[in-house]
Each structure stands twice: as C-alpha cells, then as structure tokens.
TrEMBL record:
CDD domains per UniProt: SK
Annotated organism of origin: Alicyclobacillus mali
Enzyme class label: transferase
Keyword Nucleotide-binding: yes
Residues bound to substrate: D24, R48, G70, R128
Compartments, record wording: Cytoplasm
Subunit structure: Monomer.
Domain of life of the organism encoding this protein: Bacteria
Residues annotated for Mg(2+) binding in this entry: S6
Record-given protein name: Shikimate kinase
Amino acid sequence: MGCGKSTVGPVLARRLGYGFVDLDSDIQATAGRTIPEIFQLDGEAAFRALESACLARCAYQSRLVLAPGGGVVIAVENRRLLRNQFHVVYLRACPATIAERLRGEAEHRPLLRGHSLEERIERLMTERAAFYDEVASQIVDVDGKSPEAIAEEIACGLKST
C-alpha cells in the first residue's frame, strides 16, 4: 500500500499495450461496496476471500497488468497463483515514503486506522517481507523515481525473462 501500484500500473499497461486492473477496484465492483465497508460489515476474512476470488479470475487472462493490494500475499493459494501465473514486480518503497504518501488517507484504510502510521507501515512491511520476496520475479526500488522511470525499469525486466 502506498508504493505506487495504482499509479505505475496504468503507465506500464499503456507502454506494453496491455489492459490494466486495479484489484481493489475490482473487489469493490464485485462486492458493490467500498473496501472500508467490506471490512466494517463483513470483516477482514470476507475481504480476503473476495480478494482471492478476484485474483483467481484475473490469473489466467493474458496481456494484463494487475495491481493487487499489499495483503494479497497473505494467502498461500494467492502466492502460488502469483508465482505461477504472473511476472510479479515488488515495488519497494521505504516506510517513510509510504507514510508520506498515505498521511492524508490513513483513516480510509482499515489496516491503518487507530495506529501510529509509521509504526503500522513498518510492522506490515516486516510481516509481509518474506511473502513479497517469495513471489517477486523482479524488485524495483521506487523511492525518488517517476512512474515513467519505474515502468521503464519493469519493462526492461520483462524483456530479460
């Protein structure tokens, strides 16, 4: 969250001539509710089930750039799908960068509510780091780079695989 997936994804998709799907938007369209509403009314487990279903639906589409939420890696089956069906790019940002990007919207993000922003981001990153490393085909450090430069780096990584 906050690493730039929803910004870089469309830039990369245009560059490659692919379609683009923001998985969070797909989840909201499928559920007919916002992610905060899903969390509040149904809980995180229900959200994760929707997330897995939407990921599975996208997994066998070709010519698609997908921007999943940062927690998609929590489920073992999701990690298997990501490893086997996608060229996964881990957009890695330092916690301070993420905190700065999310500062004005933390209250709209269920996993950040009621916590010190920087501490929560660091904790989530620490909890998920091994999962990100497990599924990543490519790691791109994004701090200080434009979306276009990040997309170029990803495209170059795709050519080398």
